[in-house]
Amino acid sequence: MADEPTTAPPVLSLRGVTASLGGRQVLRGIDLEVARGEVVALLGSNGSGKSTTVRAAVGQVPADGGLELFSTPLRRFRDWRRVGYVPQRSTAAAGVPATVREVVSSGRLAGRWLRPLGRGDRAAVHRALELVGLADRAGDPVEALSGGQHQRVLIARALTCEPELLVMDEPLAGVDLLSQRVLAEALRDQVARQVSVLLVLHELGPLAPLIDRSVVLHDGRVERVDGTVHLHDQACHPHADADTEPTRTGLLT
Ligand SMILES: Nc1ncnc2c1ncn2[C@@H]1O[C@H](COP(=O)(O)OP(=O)(O)OP(=O)(O)O)[C@@H](O)[C@H]1O
Questions:
Q1: Is residue 218 lining ligand 1, measured as CB closer than 6 Å?
Q2: Where is the ABC transporter domain (predicted)?
């Protein structure tokens, strides 16, 4: 979490970002900033534009308006090793005949061309697997994992390049409670290293205490921004006990 208000330039900045998909405008002018070491949750009802926003932020869907990563306009940004992206699981999980280690290692390939992975890469892969509690499953086929474990593999893959910005699309979706806790711990570790995080969530769940700000979208626009105090209230709600059920944001319609 950010310690002090900072005047440093944001790690990610969207200014009046618009995007159209299938001939329909789905982002109608999104303003959003993520500061260094800040954790920002993107919330909103189904179809409000959360995934499209994060996909636009990492250059996966064409968008117009002001979009900068590390103060560089997206169209000129090349330093993708500074960004770890965890897509929605359904778009990334389909029948991969590879081991856990292979999938996580692919996170080290960005920008390497055909150079083989070295000792430093292997150590980074092992560290990432330890962070998500799957070091002992490195040699297993990913198909043998549960949904929650699979999600942890995708997060480890994003962590292997030791990113300064982590962008995650619904990392808790379909994830069992144990995996949610492991993910919260891994995220806490990243935040302690001043990594910035933008994540799409439906429920804050065990991540609530880590979140500095939530940005709520509605119909392709920012409807409101909530700060730490409000989020803390939600995290302290009697129903927010992670042992019983995830924190309800009340944003699902
Ligand atoms: N490839 C596509 N082609 C056409 N329309 C799309 C496409 N992808 C998304 N959309 C539409 O864009 C709108 C925003 O979708 P998006 O996935 O960004 O919303 P979301 O807030 O992430 O929703 P959810 O919570 O259901 O994941 C929706 O109306 C969706 O149907």
A1: no
A2: 12-244
Q: Is 47 in the pocket of ligand 1 (CB under 6 A)?
A: yes
pTM metric for this prediction:
0.83
Residue 28: HSE in the Cβ half-sphere, 13 Å Cα cutoff: 12
Ligand 1 centroid to Cα of residue 14, in Å, is 18
Question: What are 3-56's pLDDT values in tens digits?
Answer: 555 578 999 999 999 999 999 999 999 999 999 999 999 999 999 999 999 999
- What are the residue ranges spanned by the domains of the chain? 33-240
Q: For residue 249, is pLDDT > 50?
A: no
Question: Read out DSSP for 81-136?
Answer: GGEEEE--HHHH-TT--SBHHHHHHGGG-TT-TTPPP-HHHHHHHHHHHHHTT-GG
The closest residue, in CA terms, to atom 10 on ligand 1 is 21
Quote ipTM for the complex: 0.96
Mutate to test the pocket of ligand 1, among 14, 20, 26, 55 (most ligand atoms within 8 A of CB): 26
Q: What is the CATH number of domain 33-240?
A: 3.40.50.300
Beta bridge partners of 89: none
